[in-house]
Design goal:
Shape: globular
CATH architecture: 2-Layer Sandwich
Helix content: 25-40%
Structural class: alpha+beta
Order of helices and strands: EHEEHEH
Number of helices: 3
CATH class: Alpha Beta
Mean pLDDT: 90
Strand content: 15-25%
Distance between the termini: 26 Å
Oligomer: single chain
Length: 160
């Protein structure tokens, strides 16, 4: 599931939260969670966005993402792509997403670190795992190679 590391696109980085319809526990199902991961990494491999951090919780997801196109188009691809495949491949016919999502532009490295910490500790707060790197549906898990911190957010000493 690891894509090659790419350089910074210069695009803005966003913290995103998307919730399932009426907070259904859709991603409690391993098949649904793995399908969402597959959709996410498919569009990342196509170069549609840089994926810096993520977590898929039973009823929502959080992303730190740098879209190449508009944020709206990026989320339309991810959420719409997942909905399409859940219906086609898993036969799911119910509503999947809340109509809206939360987005926040990441302004600096301190905000980036705070959002990364929030993403990594979300499964701990919900008492799903005892250690962030145990959670299979998070960038904190060792099996995922993520895109680097956007260059424009790095402190001067960290920049290439």
């Amino acid at each position: 599931m690891a894509a090659p590391r790419r350089g910074d696109t210069g695009h803005s980085c966003y913290f995103i939260t998307g919730s399932t319809f009426r907070k259904q526990q859709l991603f409690q199902s391993e098949r649904m969670a793995l399908l969402f991961l597959d959709v996410l990494f498919h569009y990342r491999a196509e170069g549609r966005f840089l994926l810096h951090e993520f977590v898929i919780m039973p009823d929502h997801f959080h992303l730190l993402i740098s879209p190449v196109e508009t944020l709206e188009r990026t989320l339309q691809l991810v959420r719409g792509g997942f909905s399409y495949r859940a219906r086609k491949e898993l036969g799911y016919m119910g509503e999947i997403w809340q109509t809206s999502y939360y987005d926040r532009r990441v302004r600096d490295f301190e905000e980036y670190k705070a959002f990364r910490y929030y993403i990594h500790t979300n499964p701990l707060k919900k008492k799903i795992v005892n250690s962030a790197d145990e959670y299979a549906y998070s960038s904190a898990h060792r099996r995922f190679a993520m895109d680097p911190v956007p260059q424009r957010l790095k402190p001067i000493g960290m920049r290439a």
